[in-house]
Amino acid sequence: MIMRPLELPDVVEILPVRRSDERGFFSEVWRADALESEGISIDWVQDNHSFSATAGVIRGLHFQTPPCAQDKLVRVTRGSIFDVAVDIRQGSPTFGRWVGLVISAEKWNQILVPKGFAHGFMTLEPNCEVLYKVSAPYAPAHDRAIRYDDPAIGVEWPDVEADVLLSQKDASAPRLAYVETGFVYEREHD
Ligand SMILES: Cc1cn([C@H]2C[C@H](O)[C@@H](COP(=O)(O)OP(=O)(O)O[C@H]3O[C@@H](C)C(=O)[C@@H](O)[C@H]3O)O2)c(=O)[nH]c1=O
């Protein structure tokens, strides 16, 4: 597995190796011991799978508040998405900043979005299947959404020449300034 840090510290792109032969391919998509040697140790407790039928579907920006916060490891087995993580840790030097990258079945890459970040994605084509692991179970009372187009965050969503399609929850989500995220930035020890 190749690890590639992104512009926001702690958000990481992971590139699993794909071993191909005449039958197809085999790939280790998560391996605790390999990631532990990179300083990443996470106990996953739930696997999610979502399907979006059209291009332009936006899900997000979502997170669960502490103590039900979730790390997420996201990958795509069909189609492609523009995936976004936003730093929502109060006091963080990068609070409110976002990072985005294309995750696709073709690239076979993954993004690790840690606790303290809101997460969302836009489908870049029809029929996208997104799979992700989370480190805490779904807790509806702690589930929060932030507006995908909050100007204070300024995510540059790609132009996919399709109407944006949102859930009702996401269409009425508040801006980050009005959300109590519950995350406080902890400076790393020297
Ligand atoms: C997230 C979740 C939803 N649900 C239910 C609630 C609802 O009836 C239905 C759809 O839920 P949502 O509209 O919240 O689904 P969706 O908008 O796809 O939410 C997801 O978006 C991405 C960006 C994330 O990061 C995820 O953590 C999650 O928040 O599924 C579960 O049963 N378990 C879960 O873990």
List keywords for this structure.
190 residues; mainly beta; Jelly Rolls; six-stranded antiparallel β-sheet; five-stranded antiparallel β-sheet; 38% strand; binds dtdp-4-keto-L-rhamnose; RmlC_Cupin_sf
Report on this model:
This protein has 190 residues and is mainly beta. It has a single domain, classed as Sandwich (Jelly Rolls), CATH 2.60.120. It has helices at residues 32-36, 168-171, and strands spanning 2-5, 12-15, 18-21, 24-27, 46-52, 58-64, 72-78, 80-87, 98-104, 110-113, 117-123, 128-134, 143-145. The chain has a six-stranded antiparallel beta sheet with strand order 1-2-10-7-12-5, with no helix packed on it. Strands 9-8-11-6-13 form a five-stranded antiparallel beta sheet, with no helix packed on it. A hairpin with a 6-residue loop joins strand 1 and strand 2 (12-15). The model has no long low-confidence stretch (mean pLDDT 95). The structure holds dtdp-4-keto-L-rhamnose. Residues 48, 50, 59-60, 62, 72, 119-121, 138, 167, 169 line the site of dtdp-4-keto-L-rhamnose (TDO). InterPro entries: RmlC-like, RmlC-like_jellyroll, RmlC_Cupin_sf.
